[in-house]
Amino acid sequence: MEIVTVYGLNLLYTVATLGLIVLGLAVVFGLLGVMNMAHGEFVMLGAYSALIVQNQGLPILLAIPLALLVCGLFGWLVEWLMIRHLYSRPFDTLLATWGLAILMRKAIEGLFGRGYQSIDQTVPGTVHLLGVDYPAYRIVLFGVIAVLFAVLFGWYQRSNTGARIKAMVSNLELAAAVGIDTVLLARMTFVFGVCTAGLAGVLLAPLVRIEPFMGLDYLLSSFFILVVGGLGSLEGLLIGSGIIGGTDIVVSAISDKTAGYLSVLTISILFLWLKPDGIFSRR
Amino acid sequence: MNRREFVKTSLLGAALAGVAVAPLRTAIAAEPLKVGVLIPLSGPAGLFGPSSQNCAMLAAKEINANGGVLGRQIELQFADVGGPPADATRAALKLWKGEKTEAFIGMHDSAVRGALTNLFKGQVPYIYTPVYEGGECSTGTYVLGETPNQQLEPVIPWMASEKGADKWYLIGNDYNWPRDTNAAAKGYISSSGGSVVGEEYLPFTADNFDSNLAKIKDTGANAVLITLVGGASVGFNRAFASFGLSAGALRLGTLIEENTLMGIGAENSANLYSSAGYFGNIESPAAKAFADAYKAEFGADAALLNALGESCYEGVKLLKALADKTGSLDAAAMDAAADGVSYDGPRGKATMSARHVSRDIFLAEANGNQFKVIKTFENVGAGNNCG
Amino acid sequence: MLRTALFLPVVLLAVPFVWDFFVAYELGLYLLYGIVGQGLVICWGRAGFLPLGQALFFGTGAYLSGYILTSFEASWIAVGLLLVIAGLVPALIAGLVGAMVFNRQIGSGPYFSLITLALAMLGFQLANSADQITGGFNGMTGIPGLPGVDSYEGLYFVILAALAVSTLIVTYVLKAPFGQLLAAVAQNEERLQFFGFRTGTLKALAFAISAALAGFAGALYAPHQGIVTPQAVGFLLSAELVIWTAVGGRNKVLGPVFGAVFIGFLAAGLRDIFRFWEVVVAIVFVVVVLRFPEGLSGLILAGGRRIALGFSDRARPVRDIELAAVRQESEAALRYDGIGVKIGAVTILDGLSLDISGGGIHCIIGPNGAGKTSAFNALTGKLPVAEGTIAWQGETITGERAYRVAARGIGRKFQVPSVFPELSVGQNIDIALWANRMSHAEMFSMRSYRWRSALLAHLEKLFPFLGRPNIRAGDLSLGQRQMLEFALSNLPEPALLLLDEPCAGLSAIETSEMIEAIADLSRTYNRMLVIIEHDMQVVEKLSDHVIVLHQGRLLANGSLAEIKQNTEVQAVYAGGAK
Question: Any bridge partners for residue B364, and if so which?
Fold first, then answer.
């Protein structure tokens, strides 16, 4: 029974963290059609923002505004220099952001060195929950991510910006014609996407390895989650995370991690082939 | 050397080839001895590039100050072998045939080693320095690194008797080194009265270790042998501690060095041990002298000393010892003279037999983000590698 | 171009003598990567889909080669066998994957790319885990060289020969009708389907050719390196192959070779002396993608403009092979029986039943939203049919894919002219002539460029601009594009031709030209024409028979005079006389 509880909590953790990481990628890919291969590197920027705050001895919560500032400014710059020239060339966004990812890794290496960094757990220790000991910080993370998703969901459903983005996606020319500044909106969308990546970086920093290559971890699985969940809905995003994360957890538990990894790849291929618009599609 | 010079020397070299190169070289005894140092400067192992480079340079400097090798000053030539084997072969060939490099020291993965032994075919001395899975027996190749035998033969029984480790969980990345290390470990575990309660291999891409931790907890293991590498080791150990497992089970790693420990973090390192031929803060006079010299040469902020980086220092030392005994750098003559060669380094005394060295092995316990050597096993053999 | 053709082989052959054999050895590796990139020229540069896992095929070829060379006594027979197997196995894998994926999904979206990426990751893990066969991460080692060829010296010349063969193959594939069809796939895959081409198979074949080239290069990589490790299969090498191709030029046969050599030597020269060498490589790469999407070779070899997109200024071969006219087997008969089509919750066609038979011109009219175009879409496999059946010549064809419907002799012209904009008028005509006539073998025969037909001559008389084949189709005026597409949809000589508002957007003069042409062709060749038309003037002039649709159902059916008398029709049209 205990082990079932642990696996259940682990699944929840996986869905929550993957969902958080993929969110920005989904926004950028789903709304702008940009395959941002540097998405993981923005997660890295978030984690290193937390490192700066820790090294300066400042309260760790300051890492959140710092990461948003760093990712926001840098995202703005990247959109202006690179992305906006490539909206009509989707494969080229993939190539250019792959180059960008290398540059970002090297910049971090130049600033912080090649070595591993460690962020202290803000909420250390374990708590006794449902009969098992579970890391306290993860429990906190569940709450934070749940609130975050609820706010986003509400905002996107109700705010004017949400409606505008929807209008822009459904008809670019019409949106421009009715006075929506599509250039600005596209830029804000990109910035929003990379800022959520940065936020994910801050939140995950105490749990993961931190080094210039860390972004690669998040990139490829994120794309597969996107495809399985389908673009365009938060529910799809969470279900995609659940399917990919759940497959990994279940197969890894029954067999081993390598089998889990192979299953994730196989499921992704099957979805890409048979249901490329995600699990909700009717195709 | 820029390309134009390169072309010129190459043309000159081609003109002279086969005519009088060998006699010419012995005639000019003071000609520098070019030693290729093949280390990862990019890629995932690039982390160890700077410390490896520093250590090799320090060794060359010390040897040169004392008259060099066979009266010749060492000139190190570094090449980045952090990429796949094809890149390494290219870089090594360029040094060997283009720059007339006379000996190679390599600190890289086993795939690159396989490519290099195939390239060199025993025609040039090649010293392989890092910890590895054992079994290398190619002509002209000399291995300095710790084998699984060395790291585990004395350590596992000690862990059993001193720490009560008898239920082992073996976890590593899915490739040759962890599999071979665990194969060796199983023998020592059963002979020390323990049992293996789980064995698992993870793909390089693994970044979530929850299912492994659940299994470890479920099996009731009281010792975990970790052969994960680099980032995977960091991630695993952080998650291990965050689940509160450190108190119930000790962790022993055979490739957890100073950088990895920094990444694991002080709050996650309780009950974590590492077995290796070197640690940055070994208390012996030779090791202390080396660490002081390193600090004096490269400053307090230099790349952390660690077993992989320091192995390049040992590599240069071994080359000198081999050349001194052979009296030349001729690969065949060196092969004949190699057995019994020994030298003293920061790790202590190393003695060569069957292309490997027997030497002291240190067991260290993590204390925050520092290692503290708690036990030294003297003169441990490398096991049977040429069977 | 000719100068390059002579100059390049001389330079490459001279490398080992002028520089040194280890420079040639290094160059040989990059040339092998370049051969893999040449496959990407076909898939990405020409057909517009990007395989992201090409290393899978390269590595498969390399492992097969390593296995054969290690297991069998080195003989040239074994080597021949090896080159065939190492090319064939990857080609079969790619062909199968391509056929499975491309026949389900139209277009060149990222999904196929992600599938190939996932396959490469899968391949890496399998190569890594199956250490009994592959040697695991440490690799398959000690692979001997080719018999009698020193891997560090003589093999370079073998690689040059391989490069020459690969260059010839790729050049031929791109120049052949197959290459032109791939360009058409990239520009307007759907249109090509409406000409009866099974585009999924064309793409799968292109992918298979690229995989064969990759496997072929891998076969030489194994003896060149003496070792094959999982990295030769993995994602990173795949990504690098794409980078080299992009930098060198995805549209030029030698572009990827140039890219691989340039980046290869740049990286090799920098990596030992400059810790941040990857920054230089990445900047070169990003700048090329942003500023020079045609790649560096596009910059250097200016003048080769647009070759890759299929448009070329080269003189066309004279059309001197006369095609026989297509014979109609039987009287045309089209029948809709209770067809229902829904998009989401909206009913588009609501039990449409309709019988049309015999030659002549049948006009479909009806107010906006009556379901006229949807009736065409349901017939040609563009819209899924929820209920009912459609029969053509007595055979049920409900739900058949566009290319199958087209292959049955049903042609279609779209309301907004749908042509291949980057191809010349002549090349557009080629494709229409090939439609429903071309065998797979003829896709690789240059003779197919010489086809002509009596109908083509007739059309050239009706539309004189068709006689100027070197104009880019995208540069034509809207009216001319309507006429071009009209001509194209006639050229396969379909038994049934569907025309969706053929006069939309035409000037008054052009409209009367078009009406003339339709009437003329209808008189000359007795085939069934179904025209959707809003303009009653056109209906008056052309129609032999009028069908009125309203709210997704048949409202009336008869001669124009009968329709005009129909009270229901009058009621629907009460709002205006249009």
Answer: B274, B373
User: Which of C32, C36, C228, C229 would you mutate first to test chain B, the one with the most B CBs within 10 A?
Assistant: C229
| Cβ separation A261–B205 shorter than 8 A | yes
Chains touching A (at least 3 CB pairs under 8 A) are B, C
| Residues of chain A found within 8 Å of residue B238, distances taken between Cβ atoms | 118, 207-209
Query: Shortest Cα distance from A276 to chain C (angstroms)?
Result: 7
> Which candidate from C111, C119, C282 shows the least CB-CB separation from A276?
C111
Residue A170 has a pLDDT of 67
CB within 8 Å of chain B, chain A residues 176-235: 207-211, 213-214, 217-218, 220
Estimate to the nearest angstrom the gap between the alpha carbon of C148 and the chain centroid: 42
Torsion of CA C27, C32, C36, C42, to 10 degrees: 70
* Region A2-274: CATH code: 1.10.3470
Residues of chain C numbered 48-77 and touching chain A (CB < 8 Å): 50
Spatial separation of the C-alpha atoms in residues C100 and C97, rounded to whole Å: 5
Domain range list for chain B: 31-146+284-353, 149-276+364-380
B42, B90, B176: residue with CB nearest C131: B176
- For B97, which DSSP code? I
Q: What is the DSSP letter of B232?
A: H
* CATH superfamily placement of domain B149-276+364-380: Response regulator (3.40.50.2300)
Q: B174 at the A interface (CB within 8 A)?
A: yes
pLDDT tens per residue across span C99-140: 999 988 777 678 899 899 999 999 999 999 888 899 999 999
* B24 has a pLDDT exceeding 80: no
Q: Name the residue in chain A with its Cα closest to that of B243.
A: A135
CATH fold of B31-146+284-353 reads: Rossmann fold (3.40.50)
- A124 contacts in chain B (CB < 8 Å): 267
Contact status of B179 with chain A (Cβ, < 8 Å): no
**Predicted ipTM?**
0.91
Place of tokens 């190459």: B10
Per DSSP, the residues of C11-69 read: HHHHHHHHS-HHHHHHHHHHHHHHHHHHHHIIIIIIT----S-THHHHHHHHHHHHHHH
pLDDT at residue number A279? 67
Please answer yes or no on whether A120 and B265 come within 8 Å at the CB atom: yes
Chain A residue with minimal CA distance to C126? A262
Return the pLDDT at C5: 66
Asked if the Cβ–Cβ distance from A261 to B203 is below 8 Å, we say yes
pLDDT, tens digit (0-9, with 9 covering 90-100), for C549-560: 999 899 988 888
Sites in chain A below the pLDDT cut of 70: 1, 162, 166, 169-172, 232, 279-283
Q: What are phi and psi of B347, to 5 degrees?
A: -80, -10
| Topology agreement, domain B31-146+284-353 and domain B149-276+364-380 | yes
In the 8-state DSSP scheme, what is residue C194?
H
- The structure's pTM equals 0.92
Would you say C54 and C210 are in contact if contact means Cβ atoms under 8 Å apart? yes
Whether residue B192 is predicted with pLDDT greater than 60 in this model: the reply is yes
Which domains are assigned to chain C? 24-235 (no CATH), 333-575 (3.40.50.300)
Contact A95 C122 (CB under 8 A): no
CA C119 to chain centroid? 22
- CB proximity B50 to A under 8 Å: yes
The full set of domain ranges for chain A reads: 2-274
Q: Give residue-wise pLDDT tens across range C175-198.
A: 999 999 999 999 999 999 999 999
The 3 state secondary structure assigned to C94-148 is HHHHHHHHHCCCCCCCHHHHHHHHHHHHHHHHHHHHCHHHHCHHHCECCCCCCCC
Answer yes or no: is pLDDT of B141 > 80. yes
Tokens of C359: 């030659």
